[in-house]
Write a structure and sequence with these properties.
The protein has 317 residues and is mainly α. 46% of the residues lie in helices and 8% in strands.
C-alpha cells in the first residue's frame, strides 16, 4: 500500500537465524497486478540436474536429394561382396552416414518464451513508472495496452500453428493438440509392475521380465497358404536359390508405411524410400545372398519393443 508516495509490502516472511544472513528480500514490479510479487533469494550453490541424453531427428527438414546423391555414389563405388553379413554391414554404414550428413538431429534445446517487442517496450515503461510513481493513473492504461498486445500475439501464433497441421503426412501433431485442448492428461509413469502376482520396481527387473514375456514361445498356427509356400521352399535346391529382383524390392519398399521408428540398425522406412537404384540393387544383393547361403544378418534378428499403456488400464498391470 502506498505511504507518502512510497510503496510498502505488508507481507511477512519467516526464516531461521542461520538462514537470515544468507537471504535477500525484495519486491518486483513486472506483473500488471498491483499485488507485487515478493522474491526471496537464498545464497547457496545451485543444484544442477543434467538434461536427458536423448537425440531427436527432424525428418521434416531432411535433405533427401543430398541423401540420395551421397548413397548412390557410395554404393556405385563398392566392390563385389559374397558375404551377406558384410553386405548388410556396408549397407547400414553407408545409409547411416548419409543420414547423419543430410537429416538434422540432436538434443532438443530449452526454449524461453519471450514478449513481443512492442509489449516488452511498454513493460519497461510501466515498471519504471511503477517504481517512481506507484499511484500514477497511467499504470492501468499501460497494463491494458500490454494485455491487448499479448492477446493479439497469442492469437497470431495460434493461427500460425494451426496452419502447420497436415492430417495426411503428420496426423499425430493434430491428435496431440486435440488431446491437449480436451484436457486429457498423459498416462503416469510406471512406478511398479506386477508379473505373476509379484510386484517389481527396479527398471532392470522390469526390462528382464518384459523381455521374457514378449519372447515366450507361442503355439504354432498354420494356414493353407503357409503350407503351400513351405512345401515349395522345401522342394527347392540350394544350388538354385530363390532370386529377388530390384523391381520387387522397390515395390515392397513402396508398400511400407512411412514410419520414422528406427530399428537396432538405425534405419527406418523413410531411409529405404529415398534410396536410388544403386542402393536398391545393393539391398537386393543382401537379400539374395541371405537366401542363397541361409545366413540372416544378426542385427535383423533383433528388435526394439516399446510396451504402451492402454487408456484407462492400471499402469501396474
Amino acid at each position: 500500500m502506498p505511504t507518502s508516495g512510497q510503496a510498502t509490502s505488508p507481507d511477512v516472511s519467516l526464516a531461521s537465524e542461520d538462514l537470515l544472513s544468507k537471504l535477500s528480500w525484495e519486491t518486483e514490479t513486472t506483473l500488471s497486478s498491483d499485488h507485487l510479487p515478493v522474491i526471496i533469494r537464498l545464497s547457496t550453490s545451485p543444484l544442477t540436474i543434467p538434461a536427458p541424453n536423448k537425440t531427436f531427428t527432424n525428418f521434416l527438414r531432411a535433405d533427401w536429394d543430398g541423401f540420395k546423391s551421397e548413397t548412390e555414389a557410395a554404393f556405385a563405388s563398392l566392390e563385389e561382396q559374397r558375404d551377406p553379413y558384410k553386405e548388410e554391414r556396408l549397407f547400414r554404414e553407408i545409409v547411416n552416414k548419409a543420414a547423419k550428413h543430410h537429416i538434422p538431429s540432436g538434443r532438443r534445446p530449452t526454449s524461453t518464451p519471450g514478449l513481443p517487442p512492442e509489449a516488452a517496450k511498454l513493460t519497461s515503461q510501466r515498471d519504471a513508472l511503477r517504481t517512481n510513481n506507484p499511484t500514477s493513473p497511467d499504470l492501468p492504461l499501460l497494463n491494458n495496452k500490454i494485455e491487448m498486445i499479448l492477446r493479439k500475439s497469442q492469437t497470431a501464433r495460434w493461427h500460425e500453428y494451426i496452419q502447420t497441421f497436415d492430417h495426411k503426412t503428420k496426423p499425430e501433431k493434430l491428435w496431440r493438440t486435440i488431446r491437449t485442448i480436451d484436457g486429457k492428461k498423459r498416462d503416469p509413469p510406471n512406478p511398479s509392475i506386477r508379473f505373476d502376482g509379484r510386484t517389481y520396481t527396479r527398471p532392470k527387473d522390469q526390462a528382464r521380465l518384459f523381455n521374457k514375456h514378449l519372447t515366450a514361445p507361442i503355439k504354432h498356427e498354420s494356414s493353407k497358404e503357409n503350407r503351400v509356400i513351405k512345401r515349395k521352399l522345401k522342394s527347392l535346391s540350394l544350388e538354385t536359390p530363390i532370386q529377388t529382383t530390384p523391381s520387387q524390392v522397390s515395390k515392397a519398399i513402396r508398400k511400407c508405411k512411412s514410419s520414422k521408428a528406427c530399428g537396432p540398425d538405425g534405419l527406418n522406412a523413410l531411409h529405404l524410400k529415398n534410396l536410388g537404384q544403386h542402393g536398391v540393387a545393393w539391398l537386393t544383393k543382401v537379400f539374395n545372398g541371405s537366401l542363397a547361403k541361409s545366413q540372416i544378418p544378426i542385427i535383423w534378428k533383433k528388435s526394439i519393443v516399446i510396451p504402451l499403456l492402454k487408456p484407462g488400464k492400471p499402469p501396474q498391470d
